[in-house]
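Recall that a protein's primary structure is simply its ordered list of amino acids. Everything else, from secondary elements to tertiary packing, is in principle encoded there. The following example makes that idea concrete.
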Amino acid sequence: METASSAFDLPVLLAGRRRILVTGGAGFIGGAVVRRLLRDSGATVFNLDKMGYASDLLGIHNTLAGLGAAAEGPDGPRHHLLQVDLADGEATAAAVRQADPDLVLHLAAESHVDRSIDDPGAFLVSNVMGTYQLLQAVRAHWEGLPPERRAGFRFHHISTDEVFGSLGATGRFCETTPYDPRSPYSASKAGSDHLVQAWHHTFGLPVVLTNCSNNYGPWQFPEKLIPVVILKAAAGEPIPLYGDGANVRDWLYVEDHVEALLLAATSGEPGRSYCVGGHGERTNKRVVHAICALLDQLRPAGAPHSVLITPVADRPGHDRRYAIDPERISRELGWQPRHNFEQGLEQTVRWYLQHSDWCTEVRERAGYGGGRLGQAKAGAAR
């Protein structure tokens, strides 16, 4: 069932912060953050994105069209795209100067584990060096702010539960869990987390960190588990299931994550980290079967869709189980997810069925045909 998050009132939370820099704002989670800021506040959003293979602005453009005159602020348009690769230090510094932000939400990252197996170097450049260049630029900006703006400034770094490694059958990750990354992706995100904390402790930069569980929802690039299964099942194609399908993830609906991010960014204690999870632990096999059951209802001509499930060789180094304990962010900031997994999944399945043209377009633009990635063998080098 849907529950209210009583602590979430965006204009109150922003408390006069009018210029917000969102990195990775053309991505899945970043785009959801940008859309919420545009819809529910009067802030001007500077969207820094290199416009890579998974970047897309259609959702933001639709939001702006729906807002009409409200998409214009006193100083012009409320959304500005800054097409910049964070690994380019000079371009990043120039973008930060242009944005002149009161708040930075850093979501830009290479995030697909399978792609990190195929090309680890791209993840180090984007997630580690990109974060370093951004920290340097933001630190210079923050140090030059007048006292009243400097007091309210925050840098929010968004990370993943994968930095904590793999759980056994019991227990959940929390803010004091030791780091134990197992993939090139999670190792690069762990490195960026450590850089952010170092810039806080060494230079005093007011940072907040969050580590979230697996997100799902509309506008996710169709290479991740849930959109892949929806699209393949709808097309009558084999549905790949890694290994025995018993790997567990803690699923979080993207709009619930957005509220957690904005709460942490505006109300979190500087230097503090918050774990964000959706109370949605499911095995991959259970998720795949749930999608097939929904498609049996929505597309009965193809039922039973579960006959399409096809076991494939497991991903190298596949973490067995993730689960998040969100007690700190719930207790300290009042956050609760509004959607349970069943509700969020049904909304997601319906959305992808209604937006198949968008899925085809973004996959063609990215040169991604829907095939499996991340099959590099142990000992192979690139």
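The domain at 10-215+254-278+323-339 is CATH 3.40.50.720 (Rossmann fold). Confidence is low (pLDDT under 50) at residues 1-6, 378-382.
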